[in-house]
Amino acid sequence: MAAAAAASLEIAPFLQSQLSFSSKSKAGSQSPSVFKIKTPHVENFASNHRTEITKSSRSLTSAATAVTDTQTPAEFRVDILSESLPFIQKFRGKTIVVKYGGAAMKPNQKDNLLASVVKDLVLLSVVGLRPVLVHGGGPEINFWLKRFGIEPVFRDGLRVTDANTMEIVSMVLVGRVNKSLVSLINKAGATAVGLSGMDGRLFTARPSPNSAKLGFVGEVARVDPTVIEPLVNSGHIPVIASVAADEFGQSYNINADTVAGELAAALGAEKLILLTDVAGILENREDPMSLVKEIDIKGVKKMIEDGKVGGGMIPKVNCCIRSLAQGVRTASIIDGRVEHSLLLEILTDAGAGTMITG
């Protein structure tokens, strides 16, 4: 599967050139250009049920190992693109909200995984999906806090954010991390636009119930996606920093998972994807091989009640449940330590973590 994802990326430059040509030939048209693949019509889409071994997943597996003396690298790449067609057709024109952070932003892993996320987003955009990226930046914030002589403090997994810390959080998330991601996506061939929750009143914040202990840590009070929708409709990739202000202009640091979930609901997204630093939801937290590939809301709530889901995974799961309850079709918690995990999640049956359904 990893080979299939990597091979799909090799085709991205060809897709970009075709998309560019199509756009130029339709100058003045209000509708986005659509890349058409010259391949026989596919009547039956591959199943999304990861517990079943489908024809598509078997084909992808065989294609990933089929570079032999009788198959050239070019033929291998074309095979992979052809096998991806049902998934591309399924998600083309649909909004996908991706939360990026955690392991993918740790300094010792940043370069490889950052490049992987950027390439995946650009490829998905090129083939007609509408990705929206929401990011945090905990490791980068910690780095700059220490440079200013401020020791990071956490309570119950949440950053204690006084006025000085909030100033640095805004500087790092909005001024550094956000613009760096925008620049990298643009360099890779797509068009990204960086925003924070304050832009266009995208998010209105309110203080956390524990604000007396946590300081300027906020929650999402309202979402107004008006500023985002034209960007998504025109094929741009919005990149959103998880900082917002309340009605009085006070800035708040908001959990990026929460921001992504609420934005996905407001946009009517097809899918919410949270990139994290574990394989997904585990049946046995001590056994990394006990990954739950697919589960519904009722099942995951039962796992929380039974203590099988705990710690930092509970807020992520609750974020997914809330977004599903507001109309998002599926929500996935996937392994951000795996290169090209976004492509594995969207363009294969196997996925890259746990998918929660309504």
What's the topology here?
Layout: H1 2-10, H2 12-25, H3 55-64, H4 73-91, E1 95-100, H5 110-126, E2 130-135, H6 138-147, E3 154-155, E4 158-159, H7 163-187, E5 192-196, E6 203-207, H8 211-214, E7 217-223, H9 229-233, E8 237-241, E9 243-245, E10 251-254, H10 256-267, E11 271-276, E12 294-296, H11 297-305, H12 313-325, E13 330-335, H13 341-347, E14 353-357
Parallel strand pairs: 1-2, 1-11, 2-8, 5-8, 7-10, 11-13, 12-14
Antiparallel strand pairs: 3-4, 6-7, 9-10, 13-14
Structure explained in plain terms:
The protein is an alpha/beta fold. It is built from 13 helices and 14 strands. An 8-stranded mixed beta sheet has the order 5-8-2-1-11-13-14-12, with helices on both faces. It has a 4-stranded mixed beta sheet with strand order 6-7-10-9. The chain has a two-stranded antiparallel ribbon with strand order 3-4. α3 (55-64) runs antiparallel to α4. The longest helix is centred in the middle third of the chain and has 25 residues, at 163-187. The protein is globular, with a radius of gyration of 20 Å. The two termini are 26 Å apart. Mean pLDDT is 81; it is low at 21-64.
> Which range best describes the helical content: under 10%, 10-25%, 25-40%, 40-55%, 55-70% or over 70%?
40-55%
Shape: globular
Number of helices, where a helix is a run of at least 4 consecutive DSSP H or I residues: 13
What class would the helix/strand composition place it in? alpha/beta
Strand arrangement within the widest β-sheet reads 5-8-2-1-11-13-14-12
Stretches with pLDDT under 50, minimum 5 residues = 21-64
The end-to-end distance, rounded to whole angstroms, is 26 Å
